[in-house]
Structures are given as C-alpha cells and as structure tokens.
Amino acid sequence: MTTTPSTPADPKAPSPHAQPYSGGRSEDDKALLRAAAELTRDLGTAKGSIYWPDMVGSALVGYGALAGAIVSDSLWLTAALAIVATLALYRALLFIHELTHLHRDALPGFRTAWNLLVGIPMLTPSFMYEDGHTIHHSRKRYGTPEDPEYLPLALMKPWTLPAFILVSLLAPIGLVLRYGVLAPLGLLFPRLRRMNWARFSTLAINPMFRRRAPAPEDRRRFVALETGAAIWAIVLIASVLWIGWRPLAVALAVFSAVAVLNQLRTLVAHLWENEGEPMSVTAQYLDTVNVPPPGFVAALWAPVGLRYHALHHLLPSLPYHALGEAHRRLAAHEQARGTYNRAHYRGMGPLVGRIAASTMRRPGASPAKDEKRAASIEATP
Fold this sequence. Notes:
0% strand; FA_desaturase_dom
C-alpha cells in the first residue's frame, strides 16, 4: 500500500533526487506518470454521498435564487440573487464534465437525474459534451485540428481574446434557437438536421470541428435528450405569451453570466501554445493549468475539481472530490514534484496576462494563419 509522508516537503523546494523534466513535446516524464498512477490507486471510486447532494443542492439553490431574482421588485436584491443563481447553476452545470468521465456503471441514475434537473433546463444535455471531450483527452488528438476544445489562443492576435469572451454572451440565445427552432425544423429538412448535429451539438471552441454521427448504442438516448431539450426550448419561447418577457429575460441574463464565467475559465484552462502537433501526456499536462490552494477564489470560477485541470489531464478518471488529495500527494513526491509543480499558477489574472502577452509577442507567427484563426472565433457556435 502506498503511503505519503506525514509532514510533506515544501512543494516548491527542488528535490535532491528528482531530475527535472527537459523532454520535448513527444516525450514523457515517466517518473511523474508512474507516481500519478501509484499514489492515487485508492482514490478512484466516485462517492455518491458527495456527488448527489453537491449536484442537487447546487441546482436547487440556483433555481431558487433565480426564481427570487425574477419576482423581486428590488434592483439590489435582484442583482444579489442573480449572482447567487449564476454561481450555483454554474457549479451544477459543470457536473457535465464529471458525467463524461464517470464509468457507465458508477452512480446509477446520476446521469439521468443531472439531465432532467440541469442539462435539459439549461439546454445543455450531456450529449453535448460526451464524445467530444473524449477526443480532447486523446494523446494523438489533443491540441490538434481534430480537438473540439482547443484553439492556439496564445498564438493568435490580441483582439481575439476579448472576442472569445464576448461571443459567449450570446450562447443562451443560440441554444434557444438551436433547440427551439433548428431542432423542430430538422424534422422537416434532413440536411438541416445533419448540419445541426455536426456543427451545433458539441460544446466546442474549435469552429472547424465537425461531429460524427453518434454510435448506434447512444443514438436512442441522444434523441431522447434532444427531444426533451427541444420541447423545453419551445416552452421557453412560448412563455412570453402568457407570463411576459421578464422571467425569460432574467433567466437568459443569468445563463449568459454562467456562459461568460465558463468561457473565462476555459480561457485559462490551458496555455494554448500548441500549433497542432500531437503531444505526449507530460506535454499536455504542462500546457494545462492547476490553480491549487491556498487561494479560495478559484473554487468559485473553477468548481467541481476544475482548479486541478492539469492534474485531471494526468488522471482523467479520478473523481473530482479526490483531486485535492491527489494533488497533495504528488506535490510532496520527490521524484514527481519537479515536473508536477510546473503546471501551478496563482490565479485567473496572471494567466490571462500571460496569454495576452503571448498574443502580443507571437514570434514567427504567420499573419495569414492568424487571420483565419481569428475570423473563425466569430463563427464559433
């Protein structure tokens, strides 16, 4: 059984035994990968006693605060409740990331409950993340043009960063149109239905990504989820006829805030410095970001374990509630910490500054390639 020191060493101190990783993008730090596997063997079980109350509680708090914001006559109370609703629903929504990595037999009923409570009401059913996120974790396809969740943002023009954030403001309206208009029309026009699936059924930031048809074993489930989301979107559109614009407007404002917060988190989830070449697991790890404690603000903008995003790329099947302990063990491990600690950052501000500074330097960048990438952001669904 693996044990950890009772008094962990200073994680920033160099280990006298560890050799710093200096490999290229195709080489791995085998000591880090071995330590990550060995030190976390006892942490791989998803605990329903944590998942269920966290997800359900976040959703109920979020919807309760949203309802209060809709009916409140006080501007300040409405704003305060909208903030609570944004943070709570954002946390509930990000369980979609956990669903992608949970084994199908783990936590029976959790996927269905999440879709009914969060995915369909927020027009982001789980199939929008399934499959695509698996590609993002592929050693051969991470950071390549086939990766739906990667753009070399650090190598693009500076103005693409605010465009990347601002486009997310329109995400809720886009989702209402995708499910409330395009999905029903797709029943009449097969070509539109195929386009809707290929281009607008994945939570992607790479506008060149085209989704393939679902696997036969998933088709019925995906159709059921899309149907549920379409019915709900039609209800939302029709609701203005009998309850007016305010409820829908407030809800869309909160969902836009959720989308912007998620886009900011996405912006600092990676360093975005790969131009399309396949990368080793270690190189992927170093292109990804941890924002570990002692700071607590990251737990708000990167909840459900996403403050340990780089660690997640090392151990994608580890449940979110185990990432903190895994981090402590690896940060104290003499052979691993030299490379492991290189993916740690202090917060969102320094990361945005680093990426923005990189867009301004861009040594040897291709103007034609930059123009194509920059223009493509505006087309991102």
